[in-house]
Automatic annotation (TrEMBL):
InterPro entries: YneE/VCCN1/2-like. The chain crosses the membrane at residues 196-215, 221-244. It is found in: Cell membrane. Keywords: Cell membrane, Ion transport, Membrane, Transmembrane, Transmembrane helix, Transport. It is a multi-pass membrane protein. PANTHER family: UPF0187 PROTEIN YNEE, VOLTAGE-DEPENDENT ANION CHANNEL-FORMING PROTEIN YNEE. This is Uncharacterized protein. Its main location: membrane. The keyword Transmembrane applies. The keyword tRNA processing does not apply. GO terms for cellular component: plasma membrane. It comes from Coccidioides immitis H538.4. Pfam families: Bestrophin_2.
Length: 347
């Protein structure tokens, strides 16, 4: 049993690691998009419009990188996909040059073969690299090419002084590095399957254990050995099958990572960032409904501007020393702030 426990532990770590790469991609992509949209200064008038269009182009490249990486990990070298074609159609890439206009990018699968693939029948599983091998022109590496375009755009922003503060320049470079790290890490997971010797050994050990198990239990369990061994065989073979299932976590199977959902979520997050102009702090600081001392006080920022600095600091001290539940009790605010000479002023 300790051996099976060790195997489950290894599987858990592997699943966590593959998910970690896409979490890092989401984080670095949002960081880079925020820097491009907020910390990239816009000019006035028509020049400002050009700046906005350039920003949107750069942010779209971030989405294009994630989508292109998804297709690359699925051995889909084409660009004629609904979620990719419009994002990279304006770029000069090897994949674009190798694209056959008559190829729609998807191929139908027959009913019997589809059932066999669903049941993981070895003879029904197609070689995922078939489309790559059939290409007559070099396919290049689309995520790498997109990252090169994105790096060139960020480099231009820094050379023109549009991202002025060194801290944001450093964060942009770190985000680009993290995106490349994600690409390298996912490729390593994809191209480093479980060695064939391990696969054969696990299969042999599993079957030997299952065949010997009834002889170990029959003396103690009697006829219950039969249903017990059936259940045990199902569990043990299921654990062994997981090893083969997680070798490629980036496909379209039920147990694979939902890369389509991840890419859609990333695109939606970046749309939220670009949905409004870069905010100016004074605009949201001065709003009347900015309750700076809630839940202690329902007064807005304008009301607190009319009070002395001593009252403000006294209220801050009261807020720090009184539990939130206490402040919610009727009359507690007046009792707390009365000791600080502002009870009658705080609603």
């Amino acid at each position: 049993m300790s051996g099976w426990a060790t195997l489950i532990t290894v599987i858990t770590k592997f699943v966590h690691k593959r998910r970690k790469y896409w979490a890092l991609l989401m984080q670095s992509s949002r960081t880079l998009a925020r820097i491009i949209w907020i910390h990239n200064e816009e000019r006035e008038g028509e020049e400002g419009k050009e700046d906005i269009l350039a920003k949107l182009t750069g942010i779209n490249l971030i989405v294009a990188f994630a989508v292109a990486l998804k297709h690359k990990l699925r051995f889909e070298p084409n660009i004629a996909y609904d979620d990719l074609a419009d994002l990279v159609g304006h770029l000069d890439t090897f994949a674009k040059e190798a694209h056959d206009p008559n190829d729609c990018g998807t191929r139908s699968v027959g009913g019997l073969k589809a059932i066999g693939q669903y049941l993981s029948v070895p003879m029904a599983i197609s070689n995922p690299r078939k489309a790559i091998k059939k290409s007559k022109k070099p396919l290049g590496n689309l995520p790498v090419e997109i990252l090169s375009y994105l790096s060139a755009y960020v480099d231009e922003l820094m050379n023109e002084g549009k991202i002025r503060l060194p801290v944001y320049q450093s964060q942009a470079g770190t985000a680009l590095y993290a995106m490349e790290e994600v690409m390298t890490g996912t490729e390593r997971v994809l191209n480093t399957p479980l060695p064939l010797a391990y696969t054969i050994l696990i299969s042999q050990i599993t079957w030997i254990y299952v065949l010997i198990l009834p002889f170990q239990l029959v003396e103690d369990l009697g006829w219950i050995t039969i249903p017990g061994c059936v259940v045990a065989t199902y569990i043990i073979q299921g654990i062994a099958a997981i090893c083969a299932e997680i070798e490629n976590p980036f496909g379209n199977d039920v147990n694979d990572l939902p890369l389509d959902i991840f890419c859609e979520q990333l695109a939606a997050d970046l749309d939220v960032i670009t949905s409004s102009p870069p905010p100016k702090p004074q605009d949201f600081i001065s709003r009347r409904n900015n309750l700076v001392l809630q839940p202690l006080s329902k007064s807005g920022v304008d009301a607190w501007r009319q009070r002395s600095i001593e009252d403000l600091r006294a209220a801050l001290k009261a807020k720090a020393t009184v539990a939130p539940a206490t402040m919610a009790i009727s009359g507690s605010r007046g009792q707390v702030l009365g000791a600080n000479r502002i009870s009658s002023d705080v609603p």
